Amino acid sequence: MSYAQRALPFEARELGHDSWVAVSSAGDFAFLSLDELQLLRHEPAALPLVKQAELQAKHFLRSVGSSASGLDRLLRSRQLAKKETTVGGPTLHIIVPTLQCAHTCRYCQVSRSLEDTGFSLGNKDLDDICATIFESPAEKLTIEFQGGDPLLRFDLVRYGIEQVSRLAEERGKKVRIVVASTLHQLDGEMCDFFKVHGVFLSTSIDGPSWLHNKNRPLRTRDSYERTVAGIALARDRLGSEAVAALMTATGESLKYPQEIVDEYVRLGFREIFLRPLSLYGFAKRNQALLGYGVRRYQDFYERALDRVEFWADQGVEMREVYASIVLNKLLSTFDSGYVDLQSPTVAGQAVLVYNYDRFVYPSDEARMLAESGDQSLRMGRIDEPLTELLGSPVREQLAQSGDASLNASCSKCAYQTYCAPNPIDAQAQLGRMSADAADTDHCARHIALFDFWLRRLRSASPERLDRYHSWADCGGSRER
Fold this sequence. Notes:
CATH architecture of the largest domain: Alpha-Beta Barrel
Number of helices: 19
CATH superfamily of the largest domain: Aldolase class I
Strand content: 5-15%
Strand order of the largest sheet: 12-10-9-8-7-6-14-15-16
Number of strands: 16
Structural class: alpha/beta
Distance between the termini: 51 Å
Radius of gyration: 23 Å
CATH topology of the largest domain: TIM Barrel
């Protein structure tokens, strides 16, 4: 016997070959044929009972005459769980103590200089920054030192970490400290200090030595060798899990997906983030040489992911971070909080960047825009109270422009509960934060990723599904 059913709000997208995906307002998805989709929209009681039960459990259907209050509370709690990371105060604080760097990367997103005049903070500046950071009501904080290369000014990094550690103990806050560096200057004294304060290190490996050295050149032509030596020292002195690596895919990188993954495996890393190039600063100026479209990146991503899965099938512990981010969105009740996919945007809300120029920005990309002349995203100065920074006109513009429900394309998109407009990307690409998301590379890239992963989930074996659920639990990272 069929019971009268009422369809709840949802959006749908075609995946090809008479396969559609429908996504409920709670973020659950269901694979449907076109006939099933039409029945769901117009005559849900005519669907098979098994399909009705699935769709009711996933908040697509409600039995007519059933008590609404309990179901509404459940639906609301599911929706709030997806938004939990957009509230609670700034949790990720990025400090740029210096712009000094020895590299001459063609895709570098900021200016660089070995000269120190005007390119570094002072101790008083770090005092102001730390005071602002600990005004956040968040109980857990991540504080990351970036550059330039911050280890070129280890004196500032040391002072900043000592201040952070002191304030964390005084305020009863849990703090995770990360230093992002080439590791070329890393030595035993630094390692001893980092061990005392529980510091994690992050570096860059773009692939095998010949590719890394081409992407990240030094005059001595040994950037890769020096970074690998720093990784070895960090692992020896701080532990095997104390250092992570990121790669950036240039146009040259797209030719070598297998080689890049194999290099991460050879170096003993257990994850790789197949990160696309962001066209800011010098990278945008060199777009003709370095850039590529969404389709070329997606092809690279899929081939590299196949290689990650190859190694995982051989028993090598390996995961891809972008996959974890997307799968967390699709498979987990709780959102990991990846910055670029939050609606409303958490740039300038959960994330703040304290730059060497003594201004505060809503994201790393925003301060990169400032380096190339667009200073429209400055939230205020580093000595301003947190409440003033969070209430700045820039933050208000970001919140409005970064809300999927207010963006013309996002509000009709099947992936609106997973994705979000990126107003900073829109500002960089189109010159206005309020641009329609559909006009940005950010939108095209993530639609391609969600399409890809839903098709992969639809056809995955039970063993692969177990793997993908484990990746979803890792969830990627709040950081970029």
